[in-house]
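Final report, Chapter 2: Outcomes

The project's central promise was a pipeline that accepts a single protein chain and returns its three-dimensional structure in a standardized token representation, suitable for archiving and comparison. That pipeline is now operational. To close this chapter, we reproduce one record exactly as it appears in the project archive, with the input sequence first and the structure output second.
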Amino acid sequence: MTDADENPDAAPETTTEEILQAFARDVELLLTTLPPASSGTLVENPHRELDPIETEMLADMPHALDPARDNRFLRTEYAEFIQLAVTVDATAREAQERAQTVLQALPEADGIALVQQPFQTLTDEQAATLAALGDDTLMRANADGQQLAEDIAIFLDRNVTIAEDDD
């Protein structure tokens, strides 16, 4: 008989893997809450002092901030997890920045459509908007016209999701 059988109020056992997965999701949320430049420098140096705006942006995650240091630093366990578990891939960071450029240039509905289907053929309007940015590496030709550059499409496909409204 387990503790849960003996005491119905006992919490179910959680595996180490489940704890690490939850921690990884929490760190991912923390890093995606911040602008790319902030999250990038935090990945490079997770023990650094947070800027006041970063602390403000992380106000909904007080459990990640170190109250002993006036919430100006991440808790040690968060900083160490980032240092050990998050690898900085320069090409991934570049793809993220390029994807952000694309999404910021397009109307919101177009950005959502591209996040949902990043390998689709771009409309003439989308292609014209991206061409106007002056960076011919944001798109590539396909049989039907233009689509996002492969690195951007892969980044969006693997890393970006659209939250559903709970109206």
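Archive annotation: The first strand starts at residue 139 and ends at 142.
This record, like all others produced under the grant, will remain available to the consortium after the project formally closes.
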